[in-house]
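User: My advisor asked me to double-check a structure prediction for Multidrug effflux MFS transporter before group meeting. I don't want to rely on an old file, so could you generate it fresh from this sequence?
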Amino acid sequence: MTKQRYFSLILILGALTALGPFSIDMYLPGFPAIARNLHTTAAQVALSLSSFFIGISAGQLLYGPLLDRFGRKKPLYFGLALYVAASIGCLAVHRIETLIALRFVQAIGSCAASVAAVAMVRDLFPVKESAKVFALLMLVLGVSPLLAPTLGGYVTEDFGWRAVFVVLAALGALLLLATALWLPNSYTPDTTLSLRPRPILTNFWAVLREPQFTTYALTGAISFSGLFAYVAGSPLVFMDIYHVGGKVYGWIFAFLSTGLIGSSQLNSLLLRRYQSEQIVPVALGCQLLTTGVLLALTSAGVLGLGGTIALLFLFLCCLGFTSPNTSALSLAPFTRNAGSASALMGAIQMGAGALASVGVSMFDARTAVPMAALMAGPSLLALLVLLVGRQWVAHPVAATAGTSGALH
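Assistant: Sure, here is a fresh prediction for Multidrug effflux MFS transporter from the sequence you gave:
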């Protein structure tokens, strides 16, 4: 594979992976405007974020078998077309309930992109390269939290919150075109795979019975759910509690995201000397310490805007180490049913994220304590799951080439 081809694949797969997060981040600065325009509260608007997470979680279970049965591109075409249609529908809403419903449909469409992208990493690259490729995807994915909220803040304040969905519809259309023109058919459809519910559930059960998948998928999902609590709670914390404007909020969000991007790239360097299974527990320990301090200082009422930003930055740095490594370790044991495995991994992650975001929405608090608690709690639980689960992984399949003979 030439360097130019390698770069173009990473760029397109990264953009597909970023579609869902971009759809989340870009409309966050518009929460107050949406609440005013639809005559509701910011907590109710946050439910449209929760419905998006639920849609992605459910949709990934749908697309997993479809990607294995029909190949990667046909389900991807359908999902991107559905995403564009739902984005256009969001332009005309006049009730918060309609926005919540359409965001769910939009998520169903966008998750085809993320599931297909993850599965195609397993199709197109060797297992020993997967953790590095995931780290590169996170670099492209990092454009979303850098660009989306900042762009969303300017679009919302200059053109209104509905214009955000014009941009999202155009982005979906561009990705549909890029998929058709430049993505290869990376997988031969498995025509023997049944789409009846029982065989599908049996296939998912076979994935869950793999101890390495269960351990690292649950660890990664629980750990990552703290990010969803941060995303759902940050508009309230920064714009309502610390009284920053939409544009300033976008810049703060973008700055914080550099922690996630930078650490994910540093992770690529560490993989030259260490294996993924060595990095994950250290990163989780640091994540627990950071979120514990955040919760303690927030509860004591002694943490200001600067301290909040600093601790959130450290938290996102930790996620940049845990996420690509747990993803790679979760998928490493699979070849034939990598699509179903990636779908199930994503569904677990988004399901945990939906619970965290709903939890934040339930508390119309005037402090950052609910957000901090829903970041610290999952950090502790993820570390416990990892420590217990690793005892059941008898013959781990390595996700990096750090040691000769590491692959089984």
